[in-house]
C-alpha cells in the first residue's frame, strides 16, 4: 500500500492478508484516475445529467419559523435514487469501469446504497450483487424490489443480527475470492483504507456546492452545519466544504435508538470506545472483551456499530461535535418536516432534523444552519406508519 | 514448555495441526474435543478465540464462534481453557484471533498472560504485516512467536516482507478466500509452497480448505511441514451437537485418518 490511510490514530487497513493486494490494487486505481481528465469529465457529466447535480440549497421558511432560526436544507433527497449515495456509487462505479472490472458488489443497510449500486450496475451493464441483512430486507423491502428491478441479485445475510455490519462481513468475505473481476463498491466513508478517502472524495461535491451556495445566496458562511452519521459519508461530504472555516460549527447526529442509556442504540461516537472492525481503527460499540455489540435504531442506514475514521479524528480534535437523537424524537422530526414543508425526509436524515428541533428557540433568529437532507423518506413511510398510524 | 522447533525436529513426517474454536460448543465439550484430538495424534494445536465478526472465516467457523460466545466464552475463560489443556499435555499451541480482542485486552498484558498460560504463538487474522510493529515488541518481550499469513496473491516482494517478520511457522493460505471445507484442493497451493521453500527456512504449514486425507497428503508432497485442518473438523462438531459420544469418536477417527494420510507420503 502506498499510503497508510490514517486520520490521526484512526483508520488504517486491518484486513486479512488476502485482501491486502486487493486493496492495494484499488488504491492504485483510485490515485491513477481520480484526477484524470477523462474520468473527471465523465463523472461531472453523470453527476449533472444522470443524478441531478447540483442539488438546491433550500431555505425552509416554515420549518425555520418553527425552530426559531434559519434552516437551509441541502437537498440531496432530490437526487436520482433518493439519496446522496448516488454520488459515491457513480464515482466508484466509474472507477470500476476504468479499472477493467466487470462485476460489482455492495453492502447495504437502508437499501439506499444498494439501490444506488444496482442503478449504476444497470447503467454500466455490470453484473451486480447486493449483500443485505435479513432484518433490513424485511424493513426496507421497497428498496429491495427496486434493486431487483435493476437486475441486481440481493443476497440475504443472517450473521449476528442480520443488519449492516453482517452485510459488510459477507461482502468482504465474498470479495476475497472474487476480486479478480469484481469491484467492491463500499457505501460509506468507513472500512479499510482506501475506502474512507475514496468515499469522502466522491461526496465532497455536497460540501463544495453548499459552501458556494451559501456565499452566493447569503453572502456569508453558515454558523452551523448539521448532518446525520451512520458510517459518516453524507456528513463528511458536507463537512468537507467547511472544515477549514473554523467559525462554522459542525455537528454530526447519530442514532440514539431507544436511548443511549438503555444500550439500545447505534451512537458510536457518543458512546463507543476505540477498537478495530471492518479493517479500520475507530470508535466502536463493544463489550469489555471487544465483542461488537448489536446495535438498534429505527433507521437501517444508521444501524452500524463503527464509524468513519475522519469523524473519530474530528471528534478528538473537537472540530466537530457528535450527538444522538432517539427514535421517538426522530419520528417527531419526520412528521414536523412534512407538515411544515411538504418534504418527506429519510429516517436517517430525520436524526439531523431532530437535533435542530432540540435547539428550538435556543438560538438567535439570525443564526444560519445548513442541514444535509441526505435522502428522501419514501422508503420509510410504511415503517413510520407502523409506529405512528395516521388517524 | 514444548516449542515448535522441538515438534518439527522430532519427526521426519509433516505435523498435523487441528484447529478448534475455544468453547465450541461449550467449555466442557470443547475441552473433551481437544483432549480427543491430542489423544488421536495432534502434533500442535491451533486454537481460535471466538469473535463477533470473523471476516476471514466461512460459515462453519462463524457458527462455531457464535455457539461459543452464546455459551459464555470470554477472554478470562480462554486463558483458563489453555491452562487446562497444557495440564493435560504439553503440546504447542498457536492462537488464531482477531485484533480487536487483543487490542481491548491490552497488547502487552495479552502477550504476557497468554504466554504464561502456555501459548507459543499468535496469529492475528486482521493484522497486516504492515502493522506488525503494533504487536511485535510486546510479543517478543513475552516470548510469543508471531505468525502471519501468506496468500496465493502475495508478490515475491510481499512474501519476503512477511517471512521476515514471522517466527514459529508460516501460515500458508491455500486459496483466495475464507476458511471452510472444500471438495478440491486449490490449484494455487502447490506452486506457493514450492516457492516458499526457496524463500524461507521457517516451517511451512498449510491451511484453509484442507478437508480430506488426500488434500493433506498432496500439500505434504508439495513440501509442507504441517497441515492445518479446521472447518472439516468443526463440521463434525456441528453435525453431532446432540450426540457427544459420536462427535468425539468421529473427530478421533478423522484425525487418525489425516495422520495416516500424512504418514503415507
Ligand atoms: C438517506 C441516508 N442518509 C444517511 C445514511 C447514513 O450513511 P452515511 O453516514 O454514510 O451518510 C444512509 C444510509 O443508508 C441513508 O440512506
Give an overview of the whole structure.
The complex is a heterodimer of chains A (391) and B (265). Chain A is of the alpha/beta class. Chain A has 15 helices and 15 strands. Chain A folds into two domains: 7-47 and 84-195, 3-Layer(aba) Sandwich (Rossmann fold), CATH 3.40.50; 54-82 and 204-387, Rossmann fold (3-Layer(aba) Sandwich). Helix content of chain A is 44%, strand content 20%. In chain A, a hairpin with a 4-residue loop joins strand 10 (249-259) and strand 11. The radius of gyration of chain A is 19 Å and the shape is globular. The model of chain A has no long low-confidence stretch (mean pLDDT 97). With 265 residues, chain B is α/β, with parallel strands linked by helices. Chain B has a single domain (13-258), classed as TIM Barrel (Alpha-Beta Barrel), CATH 3.20.20.70. Chain B is built from twelve helices and nine strands. In chain B, helix 11 (231-239) runs antiparallel to helix 12 (244-263). The two termini of chain B are 29 Å apart. Classes of the chains: A alpha/beta (391), B alpha/beta (265). Chain A binds chain B through residues 1, 12-18, 20-22, 159-160, 165, 169, 172-173, 176-177, 179, 273, 275-279, 284, 286, 288-292, and chain B through 51-58, 62, 66, 69, 74-75, 98-101, 103-105, 125-131, 148-151, 153-155, 158, 162, 173, 175-178. The complex binds pyridoxal-5'-phosphate (PLP). Pyridoxal-5'-phosphate binds at residues 83, 109-110, 112-113, 188, 228-235, 301-302, 346, 348-349, 374-375 of chain A. Residues 83, 109-110, 112-113, 188, 228-235, 301-302, 346, 348-349, 374-375 of chain A line the site of pyridoxal-5'-phosphate.
